[in-house]
Automatic annotation (TrEMBL):
<keyword id="KW-0808">Transferase</keyword>
<dbReference type="InterPro" id="IPR005771">
    <property type="entry name" value="GalU_uridylyltTrfase_bac/arc"/>
</dbReference>
<dbReference type="GO" id="GO:0006011">
    <property type="term" value="P:UDP-alpha-D-glucose metabolic process"/>
</dbReference>
<dbReference type="InterPro" id="IPR029044">
    <property type="entry name" value="Nucleotide-diphossugar_trans"/>
</dbReference>
<comment type="similarity">
    <text>Belongs to the UDPGP type 2 family.</text>
</comment>
<keyword id="KW-0548">Nucleotidyltransferase</keyword>
<dbReference type="GO" id="GO:0003983">
    <property type="term" value="F:UTP:glucose-1-phosphate uridylyltransferase activity"/>
</dbReference>
<feature type="domain" description="Nucleotidyl transferase">
    <location>
        <begin position="7"/>
        <end position="273"/>
    </location>
</feature>
<protein>
    <recommendedName>
        <fullName>UTP--glucose-1-phosphate uridylyltransferase</fullName>
        <ecNumber>2.7.7.9</ecNumber>
    </recommendedName>
</protein>
<dbReference type="InterPro" id="IPR005835">
    <property type="entry name" value="NTP_transferase_dom"/>
</dbReference>
<dbReference type="Pfam" id="PF00483">
    <property type="entry name" value="NTP_transferase"/>
</dbReference>
């Protein structure tokens, strides 16, 4: 049995170039998904899994993220004076979510480097990493399952998703073998963004990890890989190849609802899907959407 994870790390230092010019002055993590910034959904997921100590790894010009999770006394006072308790509660929601810390990444050397920067905060304890591009529906508690598997196996746990083989080049791909649980596999190897013909499977790594602290020593020795960046996938490959380092790597196959906000088209789809599920929006949006779609050529 391993130690129960207490802390979450959210890398949020990327430039968001796929959303320019919107991200010229606004961090991509602050792009709204319906009426909340994407990063808030991720923090809510961590808190929902029992992780209320959250470290965000940020870059330059990301102060807007910190401001979002801070108090805004003037706004709160105005809403209170107007008697608008519903909006006040929504504003306070992000402020009271978690114990949130911020750390600058410094040089933008990739995801592996961002995770390595968390070492002083995490210490010698297992921890979760959540990427802001992947939003997991709260009705499908992936992270909780991953935390349970980490505690019971005392190993590194990654989230895997079956994707169209034609899309595997957009992800890290896993070479796996079955376990006695159909939703859990033993990871034997990982390849970062392989060509379709070189992919070991169509199981793609998505942005949820539960890592043992030994990953830090591996990342210290990891040379820059694709894009001349320190790739977390390369470090995980080392852990998968030698169970003695950190108990091996296992994958939880996610079969629930995931919203990709890292791509412009998928970002729009995510907004529509989440809005349709909202009690205050879905009843009106659904019929309008059907009518609009019916008028398309």
């Amino acid at each position: 049995m391993g130690q129960r994870v207490q802390k979450a790390v959210i890398p949020a230092a990327g430039l968001g170039t796929r959303f320019l010019p919107a991200t010229k002055a606004m961090p991509k993590e602050m792009l709204p998904v319906v009426d909340k910034p994407a990063i808030q959904y991720v923090v809510e997921e961590a808190v929902g899994a029992g992780l209320d100590d959250v470290l965000m790894i940020i870059g330059r010009n990301k102060n807007m993220i910190a401001n979002h999770f801070d108090r805004v006394a003037e706004l709160e006072h105005n809403l209170l004076a107007k008697g608008d308790e519903k909006k006040l509660a929504r504003v306070m929601e992000s402020t009271d979510l978690a114990d949130i810390h911020f750390l600058r990444q410094g040089d933008p050397k990739g995801l592996g480097h961002a995770v390595l920067r968390a070492r002083s905060h995490v210490g010698d304890n297992p921890f979760a990493v959540l990427l802001g591009d992947d939003l997991i529906d709260e009705r499908d508690p992936l992270l909780t399952r991953m935390l349970d598997e980490q505690e019971s196996r005392n190993a590194t746990i990654i989230a895997l998703l079956e994707v169209d083989p034609d899309s595997i080049h957009l992800y890290g791909a896993a070479e796996v073998e079955a376990t006695d649980d159909p939703d859990v596999v033993k990871v034997k190897g990982l390849v970062e963004k392989p060509a379709k013909e070189d992919a070991p499977s169509n199981l793609a790594i998505i942005g949820r990890y539960v890592l043992r602290p030994e990953v830090f020593d591996v990342l210290e020795e990891t040379e820059p890989g694709k894009g001349n960046e320190i790739q977390l996938t390369d470090a995980l490959q080392v852990l998968a190849a030698d169970d003695e380092i950190a108990g091996g790597v296992y994958g939880v196959i996610f079969r629930g609802r995931r919203y990709d906000t890292g791509d412009r088209l998928d970002y729009i789809k995510a907004i529509v899907q989440l809005a349709l599920d909202r009690e205050d929006l879905g009843a009106d949006l659904g019929p309008w959407l059907k009518d609009f779609a019916g008028n398309l050529d």
